[in-house]
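Re: that backbone. Tokens:
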């Protein structure tokens, strides 16, 4: 090798090494904590907390919490009572991620009660990250999940009523704002947990946007959009109209902003500002919400519109429900 080539090679290696940030060590021991989106995050956190309080790890905790949201309640936006797509199919999206980068996800999954557990099996038992549609369903059945119809009579009735207008119009916090006759037509549980060993995990599970096109996949099963976790920094998750998170790789963005030194709250605000900057007009009439926690257990949130709440659970407070700040304080009707 010529001395010039050797010189170039070693200076490029030096430059590359200089560009790599020094890895921060994962804290040896810390206070456990779990946070989740929305008010149903309170009981979901409790399930996760049981795992953490017993010394369990963050991955088992978020799976337990998300499983509760999928079947322990019956709402219109997560799991088996979720509202269907415009053709009447209930299709579920979910992802799970550990702070070491391992992750799994399913999208447009039908007939299976616990998409979050199928996502975990994708992570642990396949060489892939994301399985979709019929392939995801077949994989779930092969793994022992029992298929059954998830469309409840209430969801069926809501769908038939919707068919009369067939207008796709995501409402901002519809039920929470008391819009008569309106149940939420979207809201996802995104959960982040910090284990006592300082390691983090996250889960995100949803039935997606009610009355979406058949085959539509939102942000929740897309690593980096609806969920991202990195043990060196922290984690972020999202709820709201998923197309905005997909456009902005939003949960990844929140984590990267934290990596640059921002607090979780400021990082969430930074990602919301990016959403507004990209589509200022559209952002006035749709909801986008971020929730983040860093490896020190600091938590923050930010939303486009007022009304986003998130649940926090640790040794000091089990059932805290906090209101997120937002860009717009009055919501357009
Ligand atoms: C989606 N982000 O499928 C989900 C839905 C949601 O509040 O969270 N809505 O786009």
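Recovered sequence:
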């Amino acid at each position: 090798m010529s001395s010039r080539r050797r010189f170039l090679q070693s200076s490029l290696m030096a430059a590359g090494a200089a560009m790599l940030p020094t890895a921060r060590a994962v804290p040896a021991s810390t206070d456990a904590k779990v946070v989740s989106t929305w008010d149903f995050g309170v009981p979901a956190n409790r399930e996760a907390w049981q795992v953490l309080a017993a010394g369990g790890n963050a991955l088992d905790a978020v799976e337990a919490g998300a499983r509760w949201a999928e079947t322990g309640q019956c709402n219109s936006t997560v799991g088996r009572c979720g509202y269907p797509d415009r053709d009447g199919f209930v299709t579920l999206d979910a992802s799970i991620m550990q702070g070491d980068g391992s992750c799994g996800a399913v999208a447009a999954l039908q007939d299976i009660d616990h998409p979050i557990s199928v996502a975990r099996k994708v992570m642990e038992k396949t060489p892939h990250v994301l399985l979709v549609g019929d392939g995801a369903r077949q994989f779930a059945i092969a793994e022992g999940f029992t298929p059954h119809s998830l469309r409840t009579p209430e969801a069926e009735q809501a769908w038939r009523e919707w068919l009369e207008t067939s207008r796709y119009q995501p409402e901002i916090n519809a039920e929470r704002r008391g819009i008569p006759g309106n149940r939420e037509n979207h809201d996802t549980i995104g959960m982040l947990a910090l284990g006592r060993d300082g390691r983090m995990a996250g889960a995100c599970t949803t039935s997606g946007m009610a009355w979406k096109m058949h085959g539509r996949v939102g942000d929740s099963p897309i690593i980096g959009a609806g969920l991202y976790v990195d043990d060196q920094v922290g984690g972020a998750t999202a709820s709201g109209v998923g197309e905005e998170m997909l456009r902005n790789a939003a949960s990844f963005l929140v984590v990267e902003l934290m990596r640059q030194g921002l607090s979780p709250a400021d990082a969430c605000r930074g990602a919301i500002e990016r959403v507004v900057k990209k589509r200022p007009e559209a952002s006035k009439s749709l909801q986008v919400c971020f929730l983040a926690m860093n490896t020190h257990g600091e938590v923050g949130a930010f939303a486009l519109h007022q009304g986003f709440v998130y649940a926090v659970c640790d040794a000091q407070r089990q059932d805290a429900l906090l209101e997120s700040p937002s860009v717009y304080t009055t919501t357009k009707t």
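Residues 163 and 306 are 29 Å apart (CA to CA). The first strand starts at residue 33 and ends at 37.
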